[in-house]
TrEMBL record:
It comes from mine drainage metagenome. The chain crosses the membrane at residues 12-32, 38-57, 69-92. This is DUF4190 domain-containing protein. Keywords: Membrane, Transmembrane, Transmembrane helix. The lineage of its organism: unclassified sequences, metagenomes, ecological metagenomes.
Length: 137
């Protein structure tokens, strides 16, 4: 009975919602954003937020509400980071794809450095293009 209550109920739901939010943040911030990784991150964050909201609505006791609030904060923060990551992945899809192809074929450290330099140059060119287009329009 003791073990079962530890893995079910509102406290377990809140732990799971916090875990989803933290995993979402990991996916969003750990590497270069790709569309698929950012989509997974955003999906996990939204699942965590929904689970925390459903638990908060279902429960009326104060200790659960405090933990629910922390799960909601982490979930919403992860969702915001996920949206930003997805936006960056969509905006920079060409440059990121080019870098991933180059990095996959890089055998030596020098060729990996060349791929990183090419990515940096591509990103600088994209940012310069975006700045010039916003200043004109």
């Amino acid at each position: 009975m003791q073990i079962r209550s530890r893995f079910t109920g509102p406290a377990a739901n809140i732990r799971f919602a916090l875990t989803l939010g933290l995993i979402s943040l990991y996916f969003a911030l750990s590497t270069i954003p790709t569309i698929s990784r950012s989509t997974v991150s955003l999906t996990l964050a939204m699942a965590g937020v929904i689970l925390a909201l459903r638990t908060r609505i279902a429960q009326k006791s104060e200790p659960i509400k405090v933990r629910t609030a922390s799960a909601l904060v982490v979930g919403f923060a992860a969702a915001i980071v996920g949206v930003l990551s997805l936006s960056a992945a969509v905006l920079l899809n060409t440059e990121i794809s080019r870098y991933e192809e180059c990095a996959a074929g890089a055998i030596t450290h020098a060729s990996a450095q060349a791929c990183q330099t090419q990515l940096r140059d591509d990103l600088n060119a994209r940012i310069t293009h975006l700045r010039s287009s916003t200043q004109q329009g």
